Amino acid sequence: MWRAAWVTLAIAVLACATSACRVARPPERPSDSPSAPSSGAAGAASVSPITITVAADGTAQFRTVQEAVMSVPSGTASAPVIIRIRPGVYRELVYIQRERRFFRLVGEDAATTVVSFDLNATQIGLDGKPIGTFRTPTAVIDADDFEAERLTFENTAGPVGQALALRVDGDRAAFRDCRFLGWQDTILLNRGRQYFSRCLVTGHVDFIFGGATAYFDDCEIHVRRDGYITAASTPIDVPFGFVFRRARITGELGARTFLGRPWRDYAATAFLDTEMSDVVRPEGWHNWDRPERERTARYAEAGSTGAGAKPDARVAWARKLTPGEANRLTPQTVLAGDDGWNPAR
After folding, report:
1. Interatomic CA distance for residues 142 and 167, integer angstroms
2. Distance, CA of 165 to CA of 116 (rounded, Å)
3. Active-site residue among 142, 145, 206, 217?
4. Can you give the pLDDT of all 345 residues of the chain as single tens digits?
5. How many CA atoms lie within 13 A of 296 on its CB side?
6. Active-site hit among 185, 273, 289, 312
7. Is 206 an annotated catalytic residue?
8. What is the set of domains in the chain, with CATH numbers?
9. Is position 185 annotated as part of the catalytic site?
C-alpha cells in the first residue's frame, strides 16, 4: 500500500529531526474524549473545539505539525481539532490519517507560515528504487472533513520532475487563503470533493491533477514555465471535475501554457469568468497526443477575459458554455454530492 510506504519513508527521512522532539503539554480539550457526542443535552452543554498550538521555536505545545496531529485521534463536527500554527518554516512531512476527521490547520499568514519538503520522484527509496510520484507529497490528507487556512504547502525540489506539495484523498476538504508552491504535479486531488478559496497555486506541468471534484473560487494560478495547468482524470460517471471561477492565470515572462490535457479519457475541467494573461496558448487545450480523447474529454470555458482569452482560436472539441450553463456551475451545485455539502462562505 502506498500509504504504508509513504509513512515508512517519512519516518526514515525525518529520523534526524525526532531527536529534537520533547514531551509536550496535552492539547486543550473539553474532556478526555475528543469524540464526545455532538448532540444531546449532555453533549451540547460541554462540547467545544479542541485547540492545539504549534511553534517551531518551542514556545508552544508542539514544535512540529505532525506531533500535534498525532496527539489527538480525531475530532467531530461540533468539536473539531484546531491546530494553530505560528509563523515559521516547518520542514516536515505531514500526514492526516484516514481516522483523523474534522481537523483544521490554521496559520496566521500564508506568506510566513510554511510547511515545506523536497521529495521528488527520482529519489531513491529504502528499497533501492526511485520512490515515484505518489510518495513525494509534502502533505497528504487522507481524512474526510479537513480544513486549512492561511498556510503554504510547498515542495522545493525544483524543476526535476514530479514533486508534489499536496495530495488529497479525503472527502469534503476545504482550503482558504493558502498557497501551494511547486513545479510539476504540485497538487494531486485524487478522489473526493475539495474547495479552494482565495488560494495561489504555482507550477508548470500538470500541476493540478487527479480524479477528484474540486472547485477553485477566486484563486490565482501562476505558471512558472511552459506546460499544462491541469491534468484531470475524472471518472466517466462523475459529472464534475475541476471548476475554476473568477480565477487569474498569470505567468513568468515568456512562459506558455495549455489550460489542460486529459490524463484519462473523461477528464472534466471548466474555466468560468477567468482573467487569462498571454501565458495561455490560443488553442487552450491539448489532447495528450491521444486524438481519441477529443471525443470524450469534457473541457469548457465561459466569460474568459484578458490577452489569453481567445475563444475563436480554441480547439474545436472544447465547449463554449452558455451563460445559463456557466451560472449553474456554483460551489453548491458542483460539490453537493449526496450530502449537500456547501463549503462556500
Report:
1. 8
2. 8
3. 206
4. 444 455 454 544 444 333 333 334 445 433 333 333 333 333 444 579 999 999 999 999 999 999 999 999 999 999 999 999 999 999 999 999 999 999 999 999 999 999 999 999 999 999 999 999 999 999 999 999 999 999 999 999 999 999 999 999 999 999 999 999 999 999 999 999 999 999 999 999 999 999 999 999 999 999 999 999 999 999 999 999 999 999 999 999 999 999 999 999 999 999 999 999 999 999 999 999 999 999 999 999 999 999 999 999 999 999 999 999 999 999 999 999 999 999 997
5. 17
6. 185
7. yes
8. 2-32+44-335 (2.160.20.10)
9. yes
